[in-house]
Amino acid sequence: MSYRPIISNVEEASNNEKDGLYEFIIYLADGTECRTFYNRYPEWKMTNISRLLKTPCPICRKDFICKCMENFGGVLQQQITDNEWLEKAIAK
Ligand SMILES: [Zn+2]
Hints:
The chain is α+β, with helices and mostly antiparallel strands. It is 20% helix and 35% strand.
């Protein structure tokens, strides 16, 4: 599997600060957008990721729901950690 997602931006979509639940939209360099859910406590943890159905999947090319992005949660999480995307997103 040679696909390698590159995050170009992350935006906060919604949150429940009291419970530490956050929803983020991840924008990838290839135009793909993903919705992720995070639980902040005890530490930031991605609980779900799915592709928004705005563009066909860059991996399987389907234009309807698929689970490909679930395989890239770890890769995306690494970039999010390295670039402090969540901190930047919630600071806006
Ligand atoms: Zn797919």
